[in-house]
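Today's session is about reading a structure prediction critically. Students often jump straight to the picture, but the first step is always the sequence itself: look for stretches that repeat, for charged clusters, for runs of hydrophobic residues. Only then move on to the predicted structure, which in these notes is written as discrete structure tokens rather than atom positions. Here is the chain we will use throughout the hour.
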Amino acid sequence: RSGWWRMKCTFISDELHLRTSQDPDRIWDVIKSVRFDFDDGFIHTIKATPDAPFPTDLNSGHWLPEKWHQRSRHAAALHDDLYRQGNTTRKYADQVFEAVQIFRKQNPRIAGMMYKWLRIGGWYSWNQHRKGQIRQ
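Below is the predicted structure for this chain, in token form.
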């Protein structure tokens, strides 16, 4: 993300299929797998079915204006999965969050602002995942 280069999301396989979770700590369940492709060759799939959903809080974005929240849902679910799995760096997961928002037609300034919020505050959630203190 340095200087002139910004990662780009090039493909999202489907809409985000959600249901309200029965678990109050989870808020939402993704119930259908979604694949994301990026211009640097990174491909990630959120693996989910109705019987084995992926839990997400969708960026705790309920406080965002609805237009912003709608355009950040895919990004938030993917970001949650990357934080949970820990198979990228935190910074890369945050860059993916920004790239998916822009792909979903979020204003780049809004996506950039949300990226900066993650860089400032995301360390706590990242560390909780690394310590196994967030339920999977």
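Discussion point for the tutorial: The mean pLDDT is 87.
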